[in-house]
């Protein structure tokens, strides 16, 4: 085991459908300034930097870290740039965690962003498909996410209504989130009656497309007290991966997430996730994803996600609130989302969440990933 | 690993693929102001608190990351600090008078007539706006007087969005497994996979190593034209780059005789009917194109539901 690592400062932009007043670098700068201020630090105090974004095709700038480093005043520091689809931000945080846990850095700044207003989102995602085998019929991530959901509907009972409840819950929670840009309450019926885009996925099951950045400062135990008396300690963190199209690959569950959660729960001493977590933040690019996470993360047995949703347990006043921030439904700057989920969970256990502070939250679960099921990670944070 | 004999040809036909993408880039305040001002034949620069002047204008200092104290107007004259020739075009670095950085641009002169430190002056292209190419290039100007950086009292609103496009061409190598599969599709109109070790079901597309057993795969096997849907969604939104007209079904299909899924489409008349008729477990059959087969997955035009 490495050294203890805590999140001691957080910052995110006020996300928007389109920010024409700043460049990509300017967007990053806003999040970094906020994170450093929150950690009571300046760039001089930072040893290493991780820059995470989605695929280059999202915004047509290759090696954006060179641009970003100038914009945040981090010239000459050790910089790693990382990309991993929708889980880029989370993977970036894991890279930063390893640096501090391994003793190679006392303080690491992780900044993640995407400026999705600039490119063609679904088409860019389609290029992740094998150019020989499938790309010509790909419909971004939405086509196959909906296909997998359709398969789960029959076997696991992930109904359109259950997913609509997720969408309605998260959209309502986002209203109080100062950083979200979609803030409109919708009913379960509104979701069910919204336009099918890739049925069963309908318009209101889908998050917005956003420009946004998010940053966290990771610190060793030795230096953490300079920033806060109550860091959010990372008790375990993992990010696992598998290829598409392997034989016997299940459409029903995400094996990488199951493996990641097993590792992380062991490290963090979690034996009963439903009871032990006070709050959960998940990356749900479509409402149907959240149902799958309930099962993959062990909040309920397989096949009972719809029941868990209907029981109200994952609502703000339930026993295991999921996405009090509103999740992706409030804002979805894809590459940044993994860090945004970490921020929302960290501020819960630090007692300073700005959307909906869950009373006495001490232990939080974070999930993030890319693809439908093949890049998945989770982390446990506690005060 | 697969080891090819020395006599095996290495210069084989490739699979052509293209990625075409339009963008709406956001330059930010400094570059946006620079681009808006070129129509007034002004070169906008950033002046930082340290006294440094950087042209074209930048939002952040490259030494400490601080924001500029003001935008200023840089002169049109400067010196050449580096040059080379690429495809017959001379490219150079220019340091404008009173500025502290070098930036690249076209040099409108022959390579032999240039020397480092030479005086140059901007030549404008009236037909171009909102681009650094409104300056056509820099031409030698041995007698140009030393220019000065001037304050910029009023300026245009920064441009918020710059249209841009990328077209990327690729020539992918097939490798021996994909090579044979696509040859079989083109020549014989059949999908061939390779057997998993100790099994009669085929991995499709074929591959050298089985993903689960991590051992060498076995012999080749032709899969059927029929198969079963495992997952499907009804595409009802138009997205950039789409080749089919909505609505249609995106389906992940396991061909009979295979263990892995392939992605294809099924044409439908109505969304409501498709919801009922097309689902996991539905049996489908490939419909091959009528024309010449090209050795691509799209040689199957579509799948259709088998009416049983």
How would you characterize this protein structure?
The complex is a heterodimer of chains A (383) and B (308). With 383 residues, chain A is an alpha/beta fold. Chain A has a domain of 133 residues: Peroxisomal Thiolase, Chain A, domain 1. Chain A has a nine-stranded mixed β-sheet with strand order 3-2-4-7-1-8-11-10-9, sandwiched between helices. In chain A, strands 5-6 form a two-stranded antiparallel sheet. In chain A, helix 1 packs across helix 2. The mean pLDDT of chain A is 95. The relative contact order of chain B is 0.13. In chain B, strand 2 and strand 3 form a beta hairpin. Chain B has two domains: 134 residues; 115 residues, no CATH class. Helix content of chain B is 10%, strand content 38%. In chain B, the strands form five sheets. A five-stranded antiparallel β-sheet of chain B has the order 7-6-5-8-9, with no helix packed on it. Chain B has 308 residues and is mostly beta strands. Chains A and B meet through helix 1, helix 4, helix 5 and strand 5 of A and strand 1, helix 1, strand 11, strand 15 and strand 16 of B. Strand 5 of chain A pairs antiparallel with strand 15 of chain B, so a sheet runs across the interface.
